[in-house]
């Protein structure tokens, strides 16, 4: 047996090791194969996997830079019962969010206070809304697990949604490539013997869901609009386009024909649906006619202006009330307690407890414009406070949650051992709305892009030093 060295250093409950330091039973097949592999071969496998991912990148013609993403290859394993609870909770949330947007387009905003909407940088009251019968076709939910009294095979977990990402969420392409390397390189036996739900076909299913936004349905021409080779996710853009049978284009490849339709100039094809993987400011600056083209129904922009208001973290705080108001149900999973600095009494509380809280820009993404008070120096806290005081309505605050940790696995070939370090981990889960007309039909991809934070940090975003990890959802 190869030594497994693990020392818990963080307050969050670890999902891989129990309180007594022994591996949880659900990870038995993973540890068995890890031990058979050994540290020296594992180190070789790290190079092999990276090489295979680079080969795919080069096959797409991407020669500059490394777009393969930092990864920890020790998987996260989720029991079927835990996943079922997560899945039901996210289906409920997406149904409520789509109903909120449908009513917002109709001029009704019964749940979210007007001051929240009017102060959102993601909502422009002067822009006409055209969301379509199903306003958002995909949402990525960032979820964390916290210890509870609930009994379960991996411990007693409750789940808390930190935020929603309807626009440009990283996830499915990266999930499929992590799974492929698991099968081919790291855990072929464990994946063969465990009843892990497959990710096969889900990228194509995403394409079907996106095309459903067009009256042409399956015959619609879908374009993945990318910011180009400089984007760290440019490889993912190629994967999306290939797997979904879509056109890959930059804004410079798009123009409008004499009838006002959007055209991909290199191929001459009219575009019916845009799946934008490019910053909104650039998209509409480079294609100023696009908004009218969308509003008038000649093209469907999936993340249409104002639909992305659901990404506003101040709006996200009201999803539980959307569930109660629109569905007549109680939320199945929790939302992190949130204070909006657009509301005067809540702003007063936040400023009095500033250094104790997590303070975020409402429209920020990728771990940017976030301050985790308990992890910052006094100087950093005061610097961020001054930024917030300059535009307080743009910020929200949440309590810091010591959510569950997973592990980062490093081989120590010299000592013939594996060093496992605990690291805070979240779930990036993707829900799809595939029905052309019915927003209550929701599917959840049976896997997650788990993200693990840099040592000692809570921010798990890749752009902030985190790593990706495959998530194995068990069928039973």
TrEMBL record:
<feature type="domain" description="Circularly permuted ATP-grasp type 2">
    <location>
        <begin position="75"/>
        <end position="453"/>
    </location>
</feature>
<protein>
    <recommendedName>
        <fullName>Circularly permuted ATP-grasp type 2 domain-containing protein</fullName>
    </recommendedName>
</protein>
<dbReference type="InterPro" id="IPR016450">
    <property type="entry name" value="UCP005522"/>
</dbReference>
<dbReference type="Pfam" id="PF14403">
    <property type="entry name" value="CP_ATPgrasp_2"/>
</dbReference>
<dbReference type="InterPro" id="IPR025841">
    <property type="entry name" value="CP_ATPgrasp_2"/>
</dbReference>
<dbReference type="InterPro" id="IPR051680">
    <property type="entry name" value="ATP-dep_Glu-Cys_Ligase-2"/>
</dbReference>
